[in-house]
Amino acid sequence: MRGLFTCGVLDLFMEKGIEFDGAVGISAGACFGCNLKSRQPGRALRYNLRFAGDKRYCSFRSLFKTGDIYNADFCYHKIPQELDPFDFDTLKKNPMEFYMGVTDVETGEAAFPQLVDGCDKDLEWMRASASMPLAAKIVEIDGGKYMDGGIADSIPLQFMQSKGYDRNVVILTQPRNYVKKPNSLMPLIRLVYRKYPNFVRAVACRHEMYNAETRYIFEQEKAGNALVICPDAPLGISRIEKKGAELQRVYDMGRNIAERRLDEITEFLSKG
To answer: Count of CB atoms within 10 A of residue 120's CB?
Structure first.
């Protein structure tokens, strides 16, 4: 739910008419960032406020019954297709490229499928991107097995640069001085995913990868190739926060920071 900070930033962009040629979302960044492509400001906040406390949406009951703390069918099919649907027509017509980062469980490496039409297969890629180890099942797509994209590539600035995007806005949900520490649940990770040694290795090394990537993005920012938007202090919100006031607070923080830096952002993008 730290991703509500990102929603606040992106909604302000959409309301101000700031558009991008391409974007990539990781985990919640994929689930919420996809609204850029369907041009639906407010949608992610709206359905989270509506359903965060709903047991069908996120609950330990769902985890015990289905293996997914965020219920797969309700979150990734019923909501986007029925209860608060994508603007599918706009999503398909929008030429912006939107990628969703996932981790290949067999190889431990990152993959970046592209959002095409918002239908079933796209939604499964989105679910895979946000499927946290121990809190979700492995997602099988076209014979492959995938989980949380942040494990293999948490901040894929270099991926976007490899696609030809040389001026990038990077949205982080941690403050600039954040340093990721080793995963304290590694003994359990090794047990549960013992059939996937490459995946276990990726989880064990994630903090090193993440910290290296943050150093890189700040170097790119100094070089004038990236603009980084992040909170001034830790957001202090649970990963599965259910209180509407907390969701709104974090969303508003994102909006306020983006609005405060709007002139800077506009100037940065105008140089591209």
So the answer is: 10
pLDDT, residue 271, reads 84
What is the predicted pLDDT for the residue at 239? Answer: 84
Among 120, 146, 142, 137, CA closest to 26: 146
Which phi and psi (to 5°) does residue 249 adopt? -60, -45
Paired strand residues for 22: 97
Taking the C-alpha atoms of residue 75 and residue 67, their distance in angstroms, rounded to an integer, is 14
CB count within 10 Å of CB 225 equals 16
Cα–Cα distances in Å, from 247 out to 69, 74, 78, 170, 187? 18, 20, 21, 21, 32
Query: How many Å apart are CA 79 and CA 47, to the nearest integer?
Result: 8
SS3 label, residue 19: coil
Contact 151, 102 (CB under 8 A): no
Question: Which of these, 241, 261, 264, lies nearest to 251 by C-alpha position?
Answer: 241
Instruction: Please tell me whether the overall predicted TM-score, pTM, comes out greater than 0.90 for this model.
Output: yes
Q: Bridge partners of 100?
A: 25
Joined together, the tokens standing for residue 251 give 């969303």
Q: CA-CA distance, 206 to 203, in Å (whole number)?
A: 5
Helical (H) or strand (E) element with 99: strand 97-104
Number of Cβ within 10 Å of residue 45's Cβ equals 23
**Mean pLDDT, 10 residues at a time, over the chain (272 residues)?**
96 97 96 96 96 92 92 93 95 97 98 95 96 96 97 98 97 97 97 98 98 98 98 93 95 98 96 74
